[in-house]
Amino acid sequence: MPDGKNRGKENANSIKKRLQILEYLSNPSNPWTNRKGLSEVLGITPQAMYKVFTPDQLTTIEKEALKRRRDSYTGHMATVDKALLKKAAEGDVGACKLAYQRFEEWFESKLTRLADSDGEKLNFVMNIGGLDEES
């Protein structure tokens, strides 16, 4: 087991454990898990896992695994996109809205006109994500 000075350094053991985590988390059939769950996947205690990896290294491994997991959905997403576009073309208003949101990054907004204490008009656009000042 590495001592504190070797924590986070690449060696055969850490490479093997990194690949175990990547393989597990990249597989969409496996549930996404927390750090305690990752230590169970590795067959070691959380304390032992933190002797092998720094928290930043675990975050990097998790991000890579999530990207791989999402990449595995690409073919399925193309099928879903095709079905969405078909429904939108058939006139389904909800599908039309979703298609514009998905492909054109469109979102609903509401313009609200207000006046400040001097009577100056202020325009605000209320987005789903929050409030943006227009002018």
Report on this structure:
- The chain has 135 residues and is α+β, with helices and mostly antiparallel strands.
- It folds into two domains: 4-71; 77-133, no CATH class.
- Helix content is 56%, strand content 13%.
- It is built from six helices and three strands, in the order H-H-H-H-H-H-E-E-E.
- The protein has helices at residues 12-26, 35-42, 46-52, 55-71, 74-89, 93-104; strands at residues 109-115, 121-127, 130-133.
- Strands 1-2-3 form a three-stranded antiparallel beta sheet, with no helix packed on it.
- A hairpin with a 5-residue loop joins strand 1 (109-115) and strand 2.
- Helix 1 crosses helix 4 and helix 5 (74-89) packs across helix 6 (93-104).
- The model is unreliable at 129-135 (pLDDT under 50).
What order do the helices and strands come in, and which of them pair?
Elements: H1 12-26, H2 35-42, H3 46-52, H4 55-71, H5 74-89, H6 93-104, E1 109-115, E2 121-127, E3 130-133
Antiparallel strand pairs: 1-2, 2-3
Helix pairs in contact: 1-4, 5-6
